[in-house]
Write a structure and sequence with these properties.
The chain is built from two helices and two strands; from the N terminus they run αββα. By secondary structure, it is α+β, with helices and mostly antiparallel strands. The longest helix has 26 residues.
């Protein structure tokens, strides 16, 4: 087994060799506070993502390309307007099955030494 590499991978609780900061704050308390901050921020991100996305099981959707609205005509007393059809120009837009993500990583030394403003909290 190789030694932990601080330049890549996910750092776990076992990688930290200290349990308290220099001012005797428990690192578990800091970690819990950081998780609460991320949960609060993600709640707003999740709500925004729900507005901008939709769930689907389709491999593609038909997207109408004709954006010209139909012309209205003056209604008659018999109520028989001209019929309008579906746009003839369509585009088959496919969905990929790739997920995209990003993360923030910080070393325990950074978390120990950085001030609250430097951590962006």
């Amino acid at each position: 087994m190789t030694a932990p590499n601080p330049q890549s991978g996910i750092l776990s609780l076992g990688d930290a060799l200290v349990t308290h900061t220099a001012d005797l704050v428990d690192l578990t308390e800091l970690w819990n506070e950081l998780n609460e901050v991320f949960a609060a921020a993600n709640e707003h991100h999740t709500n925004l993502a729900r507005l901008l996305t939709s769930q689907t099981i389709d491999t593609a959707s038909v997207v109408p390309q004709n954006v010209n609205p139909p012309d209205f005509e003056l209604a008659s007393k018999f109520g028989v307007p001209k019929a309008v059809g579906m746009p003839a120009d369509t585009l088959l837009a496919g969905y990929t099955f790739h997920d995209y993500d990003v993360s923030h990583r910080a070393s325990w030394k950074f978390l120990r030494q950085a001030s609250r403003s430097a951590r962006g909290l």
